[in-house]
Amino acid sequence: PAKGFGPVPMRLVSGKAPAGLEGALYRNGPAQFRYGDSLASHWFDADGMVHRVAIANGKAVHTGRYVQTKKRKAEQEAKKFLAAGFGTLGDPSYEVGSSDDVNAANTSVVMSGGEMLALWEGGSAFRLDPVTLETRGPKIWRPDLTAMPFLAHPKREPGGRLWNLAVGGLASGIPKVGIYRIGVDGSLEDFGIVDVGAVSYIHDWSMTTSKLIILVQPWISTAPRPPFINSFDWRPQDGMKVLIIDKDDLTKQRWVQADARAFYHTGAAWEESDGTIR
Question: What DSSP string runs through 44-86?
Fold first, then answer.
């Protein structure tokens, strides 16, 4: 269906639901892979569908809704793929005025201040009703940050504060990364900008109690062009550069040189008692 499905009761096929288990499990992922005989060129680019499995009284109810982005609405009307993406060339006639015109909102979800946000690395977070999953529109943290990218892998402190990066250099050719600091209530506490030295592909990052850690892999954009994967060159001679930033003062930075490495996701990071970062 164009908007999704459900809510649909799920059937228990074996076992027994633990007593007292109650809540909702959310997932997001690419879901629109076909228009007629045309298949998506890359699975990273299919429109996002957010799933909610609500669990209570030993029963589960499943709802799935497509995030109603501009990209999805335009392609649903045209009945074909239009937007360029990570591995999709796109239709040259499709007008792109900002990153949100190609936003697939298909990578992850996070709760922030009572709002459900569907995330994609190259554009805005999209606000959803956490119960019905209806799309409420892009999240605008501050007027001057409209359509500013919000990575799909934010990090949360134990107290609830959320940190995330804005990586927009691929389109601009500028090696700058934004840093969001978001309070427990979902409000933007601060937004800063740091220079990472190169327009590197940054999908994920890491964080300790006091430090932000940005891994600048030697997969570098030399000339932005669709599909975006064609914008990068692998330069192992540069190695992996690691930028370590103090959370309390973004101007306090240090660099560590490491061997060349490509990655998509990080594990946890932490600091030992002697200050060593693992």
Answer: GGSEEEEEEEEEETTEEEEEEEE---HHHHHHHHHTS--S--S
